[in-house]
Design brief:
This protein has 3 helices and no strands. The protein is elongated and about 45 Å long. The chain has one domain. With 65 residues, the chain is mainly alpha-helical.
Length: 65
């Protein structure tokens, strides 16, 4: 039973990160196009750092159940 909990669902994680990456890139391109530095910094910080970390934790938690 412990072996099942130690597995990590890489495919689900990669799908989540890919979707986050697409939306973060669109947000970043839009922010740069509008010359919005704050939006660009937020897009990088949230889209490429915070949300992928949360996706990892969510995938890890979901596998533990």
């Amino acid at each position: 039973m412990n072996e099942l909990r130690r597995k990590f669902d890489w495919s689900a994680f990669l799908v989540r990160v890919a979707a986050i990456g697409v939306f973060a890139t669109l947000w970043l391109v839009d922010s740069v196009h509008r010359h919005n530095r704050t939006g660009a910094i937020a897009a990088v910080g949230i889209g490429y750092a915070i949300l992928p970390a949360l996706a990892y934790l969510y995938t890890r938690y979901h596998d533990a159940r």
